[in-house]
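Researcher: Here's the sequence for the chain we discussed earlier.
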Amino acid sequence: MKISKKEALEWFEYLADVPVDAKEVFEECEDIIRSTQRQIERSYLNEIAEIQSKIDGLKDMKGRTYYVGKKEKFPPGCISCLFGDGLGGVRKTHTCNLTCEFCYYHDSLDSVEPIPEDMWDIGEELYEPEDIDLLLSIQKKPSGIAYVYLEPFMEIEKYYDVVKKFSDAGVHQHMYTNGTLCTDDNLKKLAEAGLDEIRFNLNATDTSDQVIEAMRIARKYFKWVGIETPMTPKFYEDFMAKKEEILAIGLDYMNCAELHLGTDNLNNYMGEDFYTYRNGYMSPLWSRKVTLKFMETAVKENWDMLIHDCSNHTKYAREINKMKNSGQFGSHTYVSEFDRPLISAFLPILENENFKFLDSTPLPAKYKLENCKEYLGEILEDFSFDDEIYEGFEG
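Model: Thanks. This is the structure I predict for it:
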C-alpha cells in the first residue's frame, strides 16, 4: 500500500496525539505507519542513488557496500564483517572519558554495568582470559574480532594479553578508540601484542590536533590505520580545515558510518529529518549525504585514502551475512533500535515542503483518516490512561 505525503502528514499529526501506551491504536494503524516510512525511505534512497551516479569511480563489494579508492586499502576488519563470520565483538571496558552527542550510549553512560573483574564479554558470554584457548580449540576460529564498546584505552593495559592470545591463533583484530588516551608507549605495546588494525573516531574530538598526532604515531606501528566515525555536517567542515595534515599521515581508509539513532542518543537530534532503512535503523537524512560528499571530494582531489560508505545498507548486509549459516534462508538480525513507533520523530520530514514523495498515490477509502476516526475514537474511549500525552521521544 502507498500513501501520499499529504495524507501521511494528516495521519501522523493525528497519531502524535495518541498516548503511546494505546498499543491497539498503533497496531490498527500499522499499515499506515509502515507505508509512510517506506515512502520516505524510497524517496530518500532515490535521491542517494542520483548522487551516487555522479561519483566517478564508485565501486561496490558484491552489492554489500560502496567505496572509492584503491581496493587493496579496503579494511580487512570490514571484509571479515561483510564476508566472514560477521562483527565478532570482544568487550571489556564499560566507561568512556568523553560524552559525544552521537554516542549510542549517550544517555546511559553512568549506568553501564561493568564486566566482572578478570572477565571478558565474547559473543555476549562471559569468559576468563584462560578460557580463550579452550574456546578457540572447540569452536570455529573467527575470521576476525573487534574490540568495541566505549573507550578501551581507559584500561588498555588489560588488553595486551588477550590481544596476544587471538594474535597467536591467527585471528585478525581491530580496535576502536577516540584517540585521546593513546601514547607512543601503549600504541607500540598493542602492536607488539598483535593488534592488526586501529580505527580512530576523529569526530569525537572535533578533529583535534591531539588525535591527529595519535594517528601519526599509530602509523609507525600498525599495518592498518584508519578513521571510523559517524558522519555529521560539522565533521566534514572540521576535517576539511585540517585535511592536509590528516592526509599526510598516510591513512589507509575512512569508514564513514551513517549515524543511526537509538534510545540513548535520539533526544540529541529530535527535530531533524529522519528516515528508517528496511524497518530497522533510523537516521538523519544528512548523515549519508556527508559520506557521499567525502567521496566526491576524495575522487576530485585524488586522495590516497579509501573512503568507505558504511551505511545502513552496509549494516543490513552485515546482519544478513551474520546469519548465513543459520540454515534458514532469509533470516537476519537487522532490527529497529526502538520497540514502539516514534510518530512525532517523523513530523519534521513530513512537514518539510522540500522533501517530496516519489508518487502521490491516494489511500484506499477504508484507510482514509476521516473514515477511521470514529472507530479509533471508540478504542481510545475504552483505553485507561493518565493525562500524559506522547508528544516526542523522551527516553
